[in-house]
Structure formats: structure tokens, C-alpha cells
Design goal:
The complex is a heterotetramer, with 2 copies of chain A and 2 copies of chain B. Chain A is an alpha/beta fold. Chain A has 8 helices and 14 strands. Chain A has a single domain, classed as TIM Barrel (Alpha-Beta Barrel). In chain A, the strands form 3 sheets. In chain A, strands 3-4-7-8-9-10-13-14 form an 8-stranded parallel β-barrel, surrounded by 6 helices. Chain A has a 4-stranded antiparallel β-sheet with strand order 5-6-12-11, with no helix packed on it. A two-stranded antiparallel ribbon of chain A has the order 1-2. A 7-stranded antiparallel β-sheet of chain B has the order 4-3-7-1-2-6-5. In chain B, strands 11-10-9-8-12-13-16 form a 7-stranded mixed β-sheet, covered by helices on one side. In chain B, a hairpin with a 4-residue loop joins strand 1 and strand 2. The chains are: A alpha/beta, B alpha/beta. Bound molecules: flavin-adenine dinucleotide (2 copies), flavin mononucleotide (2 copies) and FE2/S2 (inorganic) cluster (FES) (2 copies). One FE2/S2 (inorganic) cluster binds next to loops of chain D.
């Protein structure tokens, strides 16, 4: 039996649903030494900002039970260097490139998109709204439903390429945010970004992470991420990319069942850089065993 | 770089808290360079979640060695490994020591477990180079001399050797080797590396230091392990650009 | 050195900060077979409702990475039976009894408090606002800041005993809720209750928990709980009881450092029913080693 | 009830997937009753987080036995335990079998690992009671006869003994023991217990069944393990009110 692994995220066609998540794959070159990226559905770049960002001072990461906290501070090369130095390698990869963008004003998001949209290699934009909103008092855009609506609207106006809004989980009703994305012309949502967490050293009484708080990722958050994806699926008709704590193909299947059209792997890449390829094989095997001809038929197939 | 399932060939306690682990790991053994490290999976479960970085202590045929202490849960799990158990390791990672050149003596300065990368370095030094090894530890029972030669010892409590830090010992002894051209290779806790760096820079010594940082991936994709470049303008990554740096290049 | 372990939660005096959390200690009798409850700072009852509740059908719990989901459905004996059958045992325990109350209307909270407040054994009320609000469309009170304000106000009017509002973590800014509690006369807040999560069986495609979603607890949520406590501490001047994933004395110290005046143990009781006593010993030892004379001086002693 | 750190005295594989574990656990050994269980800590870390429930398979002096299969990660970790390892167990928990009374034959009906509690029960039955044991399994290599006597076997695939379920086998064979007064003791997967319950109720047989449920605490504080009482009005707790129930008392 030949299994159709392809999935559609709105207008974005992927050869399979396995993507590598922003910030956990750099710009592809390092991880390519361990895995064959061309087999995957695609990769999402580290969040790019208009100007290069140095990132936060160390310590940036700390392990927690079945998870980790990070506060990288969006260290990245900036859009210009990205185009000049990273795109050439990414072009050769034969995988779908999604460009993740971070900004602290709405105008900056639009400007980044305008600079990048001419690059043929970039097939879609993922908008990271979980960055401190400098202009509006340091609150996160991601927790402000109006801001998310406006960002979607403005970015939509700037490009015809598929737009995916990456949602923050640190809200009461994530489906309201997904609804806003849909209403403002977004093609899809990614759920979830990391949860706010912290960890302190009991001897020095200082935060283990210099930035005080960090984003929690890894298997610890999987149940939360699944609930968020399910909540969106049951309330809004928009394609969802499921993210959060996926370690193996079973987790990937679980995300698809609760509503994800595709999935992204984050933390697992650090532990097993070949996880994407292994998960893909697992998905294919699962389909074969269960006589599923189209992998995409799993999406939202929950029995409640 | 490889992801290798390596079988335990032996695990040996070499002092009251230090273990020497020998693994069959042909791909890594054949490509590793002194100063590089591996990122080791200590558990099959999700807690502890992350791999643990360990310097490659030595390479012998198709086998590699790690030298480690029980520090927290990860190293405790590692210490429980038994003959023929499989351990998944990722490596060789990072940039190792630059050890060719026209110097005559390799001056090794190791604090605590900082001894780990030096047996491998000593093995690979060209035969005409001399070695002078300075090792520091908190006290006598923690001194690690494994795989070193021509050793001078310093202990914090003076229970053996020089009473003081290994950097102070180095300062005292350097004159005896200062006639030769030498290069310093340092590895140990970051505060010690900082002291060594300061001393080397003040005296314009040729010095390479291996530094530690919390790590998630170990090969450059998480940006979790920054160290400030000496210009103060940018960060380097300990895992990818290091762990060995020219002492002039970084701010510890 | 004799160490003063006592703490104050507003007007509520506890001999030490170690409490057992609601829903993880029943009414004290079963766990008393494994541990000496009289040593602890106190215990919080399973959430009591006006009428007895049968609870949800099975399966009610499922394990997750370093955590568990539960959807018990507030199974409890109801306030009347509680007074008749449970209070006599609890009276003998020689530990502080805090009564946790759940309801689906504001009036019901007040009614429960009115029925219970005469019981001398009950030293404080903890109000669980994470229950669906039947009147206002099934949304949780806990995510509705106005509802939390009104509940606090009405319960405050009904009793002089200390009132602790147990906050939901499923919100963007928990400190806003703590502020409302303070403004409406609450004595303290407990943070956090469980996070919404789910888990699906990839073969049947059904939720593993009959109720579909459940509350995530255990070490997995500790970094999130710590961040919530810290957020409250930095923004609102109100005593905080820290809860979430505490497994050992080190975790307890960490919660106190970020701002907790006392702590509650939940999931750990299932794994080690003697954890409370062990944690207390650990706290005392920590104080001794660090020459801390008053354990309460740890509260909010973070160095940021 | 005790929290006991029990040392492994032996661990033995008794068929291709079943292990027999012997632990030194004097407090639990001296207080346990057949049909009770323990909640076993399988890991020092937080994943897997919860204890795992296992029936007390037998008691011998100050030792207790568990019989288990590798099912998921928890039982896998348990199967790796070695001689003298310490395992923390909590027990004895729950209500066991009621096995005194004037019946003459104890009819044991066990499916798969449901065999586990019966060696202990048989040991404690008064000497005048006869035993008739019916064991079912998927196929020949999974049949567990450990500690039973007077055994009739059923397999789903007919590879040994009766071809069919153990309850069907019981129906076929019951006439031969039906002259005596008997009491049925059942343990196995819940669907099998349901079939047994139905059969026993229809025929008004005296029957006790041991049921399974997901558990967190194992002793009544989490309310995680409900089973509906036969009146449909309330829930009982499998861990505290069970795991053994009179077949008339619960809805499976
Ligand atoms: C490049 C490099 C080489 C190393 N080589 C060796 C070696 O050869 N022998 C040896 O014994 N140790 C070495 N270390 C330190 C070793 O990685 C830590 O001791 C180990 O990770 C501790 O893990 P744990 O679970 O036992 O401790 P825990 O304290 O429980 O670990 C908790 C977390 O902190 C991290 N961590 C703890 N200590 C350190 C540390 N000193 N440096 C970086 N991260 C740390 C762990 O990786 C983990 O993520 C090296 C570290 C680095 C960065
Ligand atoms: C009262 C009682 C007595 C038992 N006695 C025995 C025995 O003597 N021998 C034996 O082999 N097994 C017995 N079981 C089943 C045993 O508890 C499970 O096989 C074991 O928990 C599986 O753990 P795992 O980590 O290997 O599996 P996983 O599937 O990884 O476990 C995941 C979670 O599901 C729970 N779980 C999985 N299977 C079961 C099950 N069948 N019943 C209840 N919870 C389950 C686990 O406890 C854990 O919380 C008993 C169960 C109960 C309730
Ligand atoms: C070290 C690290 C860096 C990350 N950087 C970004 C980022 O730059 N932009 C972004 O949108 N998400 C970023 N994320 C979030 C991940 O893309 C992902 O949403 C999250 O980690 C949850 O998935 P996981 O549990 O599989 O890791 C980062 C995560 C980690 C762990
Ligand atoms: C099985 C279970 C039942 C619970 N029942 C209640 C409850 O009835 N009322 C309540 O306020 N909290 C309840 N909780 C939440 C706990 O009191 C606690 O806030 C939460 O579990 C986080 O702490 P932990 O990680 O230490 O378990 C329950 C938690 C669990 C695990
Ligand atoms: S450890 Fe991930 S970039 Fe260095
Ligand atoms: S398992 Fe906790 S009440 Fe039964």
C-alpha cells in the first residue's frame, strides 16, 4: 500500500506533516549533519527580526522535570544577513522553508515580511507573537487579542504567501485568538509556543535563568498543548500546526487526532536530531498497520 | 558527527567519586580530536530530559573514554551503567585544542574534573613535545592524575602538594619551564579558567582554555550556551565555537 | 539553634508552612495511616459542595510525563455529611483544618460558608474558583476576573474567618486576579490549581479521560507554578500559598524564595504519603545549615 | 499499611514475558491478606511518576512475591531490578478475598496475569478446601500456572487446552464440581471479569472478582479509581473498597 503523507495547511502544500520548530533547528546547517532534512515536510527558521539580535546573557537554559526553560532572547542574524548567508544553503535543502518572524511593533512585522517576501525559497511566514511588545508597555502581543488581530491583518495585506500565526498558550481561551486570526485573513495557526516558567537556585536565591523567566517546552507541556489544539479544533475552522512536547511518532499521531494538520518538533531535536525522520517513518508504519491511505485523514479524527 | 549507540566495555571507579567509562564507539573514536566532547543520553525516559556533555578523555582503537563525577541525577544514572549496556552518544562535538605549532612544552592546567580531556591531548601531542601537568583539587582524595605525566599537584586544603589553587602553583612554577617556548592548555571550573585567563593575558602567554556552559543540544541549534566574545559585541557558542577558546577571544 | 517554623497567612497562624492540598488528602483519615498529620502546618479538605457529588465516571486519571491529569469531578460528601462524619476525626488531628469549597453559583459559595463557618475546627476557607459557572454559560469562574472579585466580596461578607482564594493558572495575568482578591477583602491566594490538559489513546482515538480534559499536576508544572507565584509576589501585596509540583524540601524552599508564605503538597502525596513530614524535616535542616532563624524570612527573598 | 524499602531477593523470568519478583518485606509479609495489592515505586525520577499496583502473589516467611508482565515503561523498569536493589513499596492495600465460609471448593478463574493473587489465596485456604483452577491465556506460551493446582487451561487460539475463553471453559466444566458447594474467585482483565460476573449472577453463584482500574494513590485519597456500585447511585473505589468485590456489588 502506498500511503499519501502529504498535507495542506491552507494554501501551503507539504510533502508530509513533520516540521522542525522555530528556534530548535537554527537555519538548518548544523542539524543537517545528523539528519536528512530533505525527507521532512519542512523547517521553520529561528525567529528573525529586522536587525540582528545578540540575545540574552547566559544562563539561557535550564532543565526541569521532563522539560526545559529557555530565554534565548531571540538571538538571530537579522533578515538581511539571513537572505545573504542562510538562504543559499536552505535553497539546496529540498524541503519547505517557513520563515518565522518576531518583532516588537506591528510595523516591524510588516517590514520584515516585505523584505523577505521576494525570496522564492520562503514558502510561508510564521508570525511569532510571543515577544515582548516594546511599544505597548512590554506586555506580550500574544496575550492581547486585538494586537494579534491587527498583526494578522497587516501582514496579510503585505503578502500573498501563507501566513501562520504562532499562538501563545499563556491565555485563558486560545480558540478566541485562533478565531481572530481567521477573521483577519490568517491561513493557519501554530499551537503552542512555550509556557512562562521559572526556576531558582535555592543557595544563591537567584533565578537559574538570567532573564528570570523562560519558556517551558518539552514533554512536560504535551498535555497542555494537546488541550489547546483540541480547543481550537472544536471551536474554529482553521488549519492547526500542533507543537509541544512531541518526542515520538505516537505523540505526533495524538496531535493529529486532536486536530493538527501538521506538527512541529522542538525540544526533541536537541536530544535526538534525527527525530523528525524517525517520526515520519513511525507515522507511515502506523498508517500501514491501520490501513490509513491518507495520513491527513487523521486530522481531527478524535472520537469524543 | 555521529549518533552512536555505544556499548559499555568497562566502568571503573578510579577514586571515591570519579568513574572512568570505556565505550565501544568506532565512528566517534576515529574522528575525535583532543578537547572535543560528546553529548550523552543518560536515560531512556524524559526525566532527566537533556543529554549531558562530557569531554572525550581518551581514544584507544575503536573505544573512547569518559571521566566523570557523580554530580546530580544524570551522572548518577550514568554511574549505574554496566558492562554491555548501550549508551547513546552524540559526537564528536565542538572545536578541540589547537596543539600543533612550534612550542616545546605543553603546560596542562587542570582543576577537578578538568583533567578529563588531557589524556587524549597528551596521546596526540607530537613526540618531541614535553608535558608539564598542573592539577588542582579540593583535597588529596580528589586529585585526578589519570593519564597525565610530569605532574605537580595543588590542593585547596593543602592535604597534598602545594597549598592553594592550581593557578597559584602555576605562577610559582612557571619560571622553571619559562625558558622553553610553551603553550598553556587549561580546563576546569569557570572561575579557575577566569583566573588562568587573567594570568595568561597579563603575561602574554599562549593559552587555550576549555570552558563549561549549560547546554541543551551541544551542536549549535538551541543557542543555549553563549559566551561573550572579548569585543563584548557578540556571543559565541560554547558547544560549537568552543568549548576550547584562545584565552584572548572570550570573556568568562 | 531552635528554628521558628511558624508562618502567618494574614490572620491565619500555622505552626509551619507545610499544608496538604485539596483533593489529594481526602478528609485526612486514609493518609493518616502513613504519616503523622499533627506535625504538619495543616490540611485542606477535598473541595466540598452544598450537595454530595458522585463525581465523574472513570477513567478519571492518567499519567503524563512527570505529571498526571485528573478529572475527578469534585466527588465529595457534601457539607452536611462532612460536618457529621468527617469533622469528628479531623478535630482530633491536632493540625490546622482549612475547608475548601467549590460551587457553581456565587450564592452556593456563600451558603456553604454559612453552613460551615460555625464549626470551630475549621480555621479558614479556601475557595476553589476553578469550577464551571453554571449560570454564566459553563465558563470557569477562575478565568473571569469579575466573578472572582464578586465571589471574594460575598464570601468575605459572610465570615470573619480567613479566606484564601485558590487561583486558576489558565489565565494571562494571574497577578490581576490576586489584586482583585485583595481589593475585595480576601486574606490570601493559593497558586496554582491544575492546568487544563488532555491525552488521547491513539488506537481508539478516544480521550484517555472520560471527561475529555483534566487538570495537569505534578513536577511537570512546577516551573509554571513558580512563575505564577513570582508574578503575584512582584505585583501584589498579599500572602501566597504556593502549590504545584512540589516533590521535596528543595522545591518547597524554591516556592518560598519566589514568594510563598506557605506551600501545599498535592500529587506527591500519592507517591509518598509521608512527603509532608519529610519536607518539613528538610526545611528545618536547610534553615539550620544556613543559620536561618525564622523560616518565614525565606518568603520572597529572591535575589533578582 | 506500610511504606517499606524492600530488597530484591530474586527476580526470575518464568515465561517469555512474565517475571516473578521476590522481595524482603517483613511488615507487609506479616500483615497481607490474599487479594490485596501493593503500590510499587518503579523509578527514583519523576518519569514515570506514579507507583504501579501489583497483586501480592504470595507470602513466604518475611518475603513477598509479585508476578508481572512487561506492559509499558514502568514494568520494564521493574524487570531491570537486580538482586539486592531496593524497591519502595506501599501496602498491603485494599480489601482481599473473603475466603472463609462453608463452601467446599474454591473455583479459581484467572485470565492472563490474573493468576497473580491466587498462589497466596491457595496457601491460606484451610486445608479441607478443594481447589479447581481455570486459567486462560491468549496462547500456549502465555499460560501461567505458577502456584496453582488442579488446573484446567483455556487458550484463545486453542494452542493448548480448551479453545475459547476461560469463562466458557468454566461453564463447560462447572457441572463436575457443581455437586459440591463452591465459591468462585476471579481475577483478570475487566472484560473477562464482566463475563464471569454475568455468568455467576445468572446462576446465582457465590462469586468474588478482582478488578483493575487506573490508580494514582492506591489507598483512597485521590478518588481516581471509581467503579460504579450496582445500584448505579454511587461509586466505590477500586483501591480501597476493592480490588476484590462480591460480583453482585459492582457494575463493571
Ligand atoms: C563541554 C563540557 C565538557 C564536560 N566534560 C565533563 C567531563 O569530562 N567530566 C565530567 O564529570 N563533567 C564534565 N562536564 C560537566 C558535566 O556535563 C556535568 O557534570 C553534568 O552535566 C552534570 O549532570 P547531572 O545530571 O549529574 O547534574 P545536574 O546538576 O542534575 O544537572 C542538571 C542540569 O545542569 C547541567 N549541568 C550541571 N552541571 C554542569 C556543568 N558543570 N556544566 C554544564 N552543565 C552542567 C546538566 O547538563 C543538566 O542539564 C562537562 C561540561 C561541558 C559543558
Ligand atoms: C489492583 C491491581 C492489581 C494488579 N496486579 C497486577 C499483577 O499482579 N501483575 C501485573 O502484571 N499487573 C498487575 N496489575 C496491572 C499493572 O498495574 C499494570 O500492568 C502496570 O501498572 C503497567 O504499568 P506500565 O508502566 O508498565 O504500563 P503503562 O501502560 O506505561 O502505564 C501507564 C499508566 O497506566 C496504568 N496502567 C497500565 N495498565 C494498567 C492496568 N492494567 N491496570 C491499572 N492501571 C494500568 C499504569 O499504572 C500507569 O499509570 C494490577 C493492577 C491493579 C489495579
Ligand atoms: C531553545 C528554544 C528556542 C526557541 N526559539 C523560538 C523562536 O525563536 N521562535 C519561536 O516562535 N519559537 C521558539 N521556540 C518555541 C518552539 O518553537 C516550540 O514552540 C516550543 O519549544 C514547544 O515545542 P517543544 O515542546 O516540542 O519544544 C523555542 C524553543 C526552544 C526550546
Ligand atoms: C486527583 C486530584 C484532585 C484534586 N482535587 C482538587 C479539589 O477538589 N479542589 C481543589 O481546589 N484542587 C484540587 N486539586 C488540585 C490540587 O489541590 C493542586 O492545586 C494541584 O494538584 C497542583 O499541585 P501538585 O502539582 O502538587 O499536585 C486536585 C488535584 C489532584 C491531582
Ligand atoms: S548547546 Fe545548543 S547551541 Fe550550544
Ligand atoms: S487510587 Fe487513589 S483513590 Fe483509588
Amino acid at each position: 500500500m502506498s500511503i499519501d503523507l502529504s498535507v495542506n495547511i491552507g494554501a501551503l502544500k507539504l510533502k508530509n506533516p513533520v516540521l522542525l520548530a522555530s528556534g530548535t533547528v537554527g537555519y538548518g546547517n548544523e542539524i543537517a549533519q545528523f539528519t536528512d532534512l530533505s525527507k521532512l515536510g519542512g523547517i521553520v527558521t529561528k525567529s528573525l527580526s529586522l536587525k540582528p539580535r545578540k540575545g540574552n546573557p547566559p544562563q539561557r537554559i535550564v532543565e526541569t522535570p521532563s522539560g526545559m526553560l529557555n530565554a534565548i532572547g531571540l538571538a538571530n542574524v537579522g533578515v538581511e544577513v539571513f537572505i545573504k548567508e542562510k538562504i543559499p544553503f536552505l535553497k539546496e535543502l529540498n524541503t519547505t522553508l517557513i520563515c518565522n518572524i518576531a518583532a516588537s511593533t506591528i510595523e516591524e512585522y510588516v517590514e520584515c515580511v516585505n523584505i523577505l517576501k521576494g525570496e522564492e525559497t520562503i514558502k510561508a511566514f510564521e508570525i511569532n507573537v510571543s515577544c515582548p511588545n516594546v511599544k505597548e508597555g512590554g506586555l506580550e502581543f500574544g496575550n492581547d487579542i486585538n494586537a494579534v488581530g491587527r498583526i494578522t491583518e497587516k501582514v496579510r495585506a503585505a503578502t500573498n504567501k501563507p501566513i501562520i500565526i504562532k499562538l501563545s498558550p499563556n491565555v485563558s481561551r486560545i480558540s478566541d485568538f485562533a478565531k481572530t486570526v481567521k477573521q483577519n485573513g490568517g491561513d493557519a495557526v501554530s499551537a503552542i509556543n512555550t509556557l512562562v516558567g521559572t526556576s531558582f537556585d535555592i543557595n544563591t536565591r537567584r533565578p537559574k535563568i538570567k532573564n528570570v523567566t523562560g519558556g517551558l517546552s518539552g514533554p512536560a507541556i504535551k498535555p497542555i498543548a494537546l488541550a489547546k489544539v483540541l480547543e481550537i479544533k472544536r471551536n474554529v475552522d482553521i488549519p492547526i500546526i500542533g507543537i509541544g512536547g512531541i518526542m515520538n511518532w505516537k505523540d505526533a499521531v495524538e496531535f493529529m487526532i486532536v486536530g493538527a494538520s501538521a506538527i512541529q518538533l522542538g525540544t526533541v531535536n536537541f536530544i535526538n536530531p534525527n527525530a523528525g525522520v524517525e517520526i515520519l517513518q513511525g507515522l507511515e508504519e502506523y498508517c500501514r498497520k491501520n490501513s490509513i491511505e491518507k495520513l491527513s485523514s487523521l486530522t481531527g479524527s478524535y472520537q469524543i | 558527527m555521529y549518533i552512536e549507540k555505544a556499548k559499555v566495555e568497562s566502568i571503573e571507579k578510579i577514586n571515591e567519586q570519579t568513574f572512568l567509562l570505556k565505550l565501544f564507539s568506532p565512528s566517534i573514536a576515529s574522528s575525535a580530536k583532543p578537547g572535543q566532547f560528546c553529548n550523552v543520553k543518560v536515560s531512556e525516559r524524559t526525566d532527566p530530559l537533556l543529554r549531558r556533555p562530557f569531554s572525550i578523555c581518551n581514544v584507544e582503537g575503536e573505544s573512547i573514554y569518559f571521566l566523570f563525577d557523580i554530580h546530580g541525577e544524570g551522572t548518577k544514572l550514568l554511574s549505574h551503567k554496566k558492562f554491555e549496556d548501550e549508551i547513546e552518544i552524540l559526537g564528536p562535538l565542538g572545536k578541540g585544542f589547537v596543539y600543533d605549532g612550534s612550542y616545546e612544552t605543553a603546560v596542562i592546567v587542570a582543576g577537578g574534573l578538568g583533567t578529563a580531556p588531557f589524556p587524549f591531548l597528551i596521546n596526540r601531542l607530537s613526540k618531541d613535545k614535553k608535558v608539564a601537568a598542573f592539577v588542582g583539587a579540593r583535597s588529596k582524595n580528589l586529585v585526578l592524575q589519570h593519564g597525565l605525566k610530569n605532574i605537580s599537584v595543588a590542593t585547596d586544603d593543602g592535604s597534598v602538594g602545594f597549598h592553594g589553587t592550581v593557578v597559584d602553583l602555576l605562577k610559582k612554577e612557571i619560571s622553571s619551564i619559562a625558558k622553553n617556548k610553551f603553550r598553556i592548555f587549561g580546563c576546569g571550573p569557570n572561575p579557575m579558567m577566569k583566573a588562568l585567563q587573567k594570568y595568561a593575558m597579563e603575561n602574554n602567554f599562549d593559552c587555550q582554555i576549555s570552558v563549561e556552559a549549560a547546554m541543551a543540544c551541544g551542536f549549535g541549534i538551541c543557542q543555549g550556551c553563549p559566551i561573550e566574545a572579548s569585543d563584548g559585541e557578540s556571543y559565541l557558542l560554547v558547544c560549537k565555537d568552543g568549548p576550547v577558546f584562545d584565552a584572548k577571544k572570550v570573556k568568562i
